[in-house]
Every structure is written in structure tokens, then in C-alpha cells.
Amino acid sequence: MVDHAHLRALAAVVREGSFDKAAAALHVTPSAISQRIKALESRIGRLLLQRGTPTTATPDGQILVQLAEQTALLEHDALARLGVGGESLALASIAVAVNHDSLATWFLDAIVRFAADGSATLDLQSEDQDHTIGLLRSGAVLAAVTARAEPVQGCRIHPLGSMDYAATCSPAFFERYFSRGVNATSLAQAPVLVFNRKDAMQARFVQKILGDAPWQPPVWWLPSARAFVRAALAGLGWTMNPLPLVQDHIDRGELVVLRPRMREEAALYWQHWRMQSETMERLTDAVLAASAALRSR
């Protein structure tokens, strides 16, 4: 009913963000990609792409992108079981969304475990844990580490445990801004480190202290989990850091905790689309094994 090459072209355009990049990824011309997309849209009778920068899938296109990604994975598994496919088996790359702090801490161990037995690779997309679910729901990824406890329809969910966060800063920064207490006055004056506009963790910490009072501090925008730590150590500002990244610095006195009893606990879950895929099962096993420390805290 639907040409496999046309589905691959659609998925490549959405994954790469443009017709030219999709053509390079599939080793064909941009004209060939355009023709395949037009043929698929004609066959389905729906607009599947929103042409722009980047090019994105329409809601109808998202359904077919999901089909394309799942089909590619199942094809990879089938060829592996048959012992055929040669070098093409190494081209399978599973789209996975991972929150920034997991990627900076425990998820690399999952990648290493997964790579130890198999030829599939991962196409990792880093996003805030509250927003990875959107990539999964749209079909842009086949699996995600997310903070959402409710499974996406058609997905399986596995609890991973919790990651603890604490508001931290350097001793010199604490002495400069918080020597008289962590209160409305000091929080308004002290610069804060924020990952991006989706990062609400610092605001939630402040809300526990100030309630609904307005809070407009100086902000450093730093879209890197490890840059957060370096910036905090350097005394640029305070922020909510994951304890696995900063516990050693706290123990050595290089960072101090603003309110020791006020910690943020972020429960994490692994969700993936339901499919009879040996590769997805291996990836899930690797993720659950690597996240064991989150469940034993």
C-alpha cells in the first residue's frame, strides 16, 4: 500500500530537517527525495510535511514517520536473525530522546551496554525531561527517558527511579549573596544559572520559598549540564544541580547547598513504542541496568 522508499524519504527529511540533508543521508539527489515525498502525499491524499527551516512533519506525517522508524527497526532485526544484510545492518540508528542530566550522568553506561552486543546505533536527541514525551508522542523518536508517569498510547513504560537535585553555589558566592539568608531579597539579587526557557526547576525551588511573589533575578542561560557545574564552581551563579554530578564537589567543600533540606526529586521513566523488536528489548535491558543506581538511592 505504501512504498518503503517513500517512507524512508519522509523519515529522513523530518530527521535531518531539510530535503538536501535527507538526500545526502540516503545517498540520492534532492530531486529524488522531492519526487518520493510528492508521490507519497499523492498516494495518501494528505499534506505530510510543513516546508520550512527546519522542515517538520504535519500530524498526518508524524504517523507515517513513526511507521517508517518502526519498520526500519523491525527490518534490521529480521535481517540480523537471517544472518544477511552485511554492512547495511550497521546503518540502523534508533531515534531516542534523553533528558540532559541523564545524558550527562548514567545514560552513557546504557549506551556502552547496548553497543556491546549488536550493530544498531542510537540517534540521541537531548531535551528537558518534561518535554521528551512530545518527541515520543509525535513519532520523532521510538523511545524516551521522560518525567511523565502516564504512558503514551501505544507505548510501554518502565520506572527508572529518581534523580535528586539540590540548589548549589560556590562558598564565595554564598558568602556574597546568602550570608544573611536565602530569602526574597537575596534571591532577587543573586544571579541564577538556567539551562533554557523550558527549565523550570530553579523557579520551582524559589516558589517554595517565596510562594507566588514575583522573582526576576539576573540570569545566566547555559544549555549544558556540565557547564552548570563549572559555572557554579567559578561563582557565576547558583542553580539546581543533579547530585550525581556535584556530590563530590559538595563533599570537598567546593560547592555548598543553599537549603540542605529542600531538594527536588525528579522521577524518571523509560517509554518506548510497543513492537516485537529484539533490538528494542536489548536497549531497554541496557537502560534498566544502567539506571539501577536511581532505584537504589
Automatic annotation (TrEMBL):
Keywords: DNA-binding, Transcription, Transcription regulation
Presence of the UniProt keyword Lipoprotein in the record: no
Record-annotated HTH lysR-type domain positions: 2-58
Molecular function terms from GO: DNA binding; DNA-binding transcription factor activity
Family the UniProt entry places it in: Belongs to the LysR transcriptional regulatory family.
Protein name: LysR family transcriptional regulator ArgP
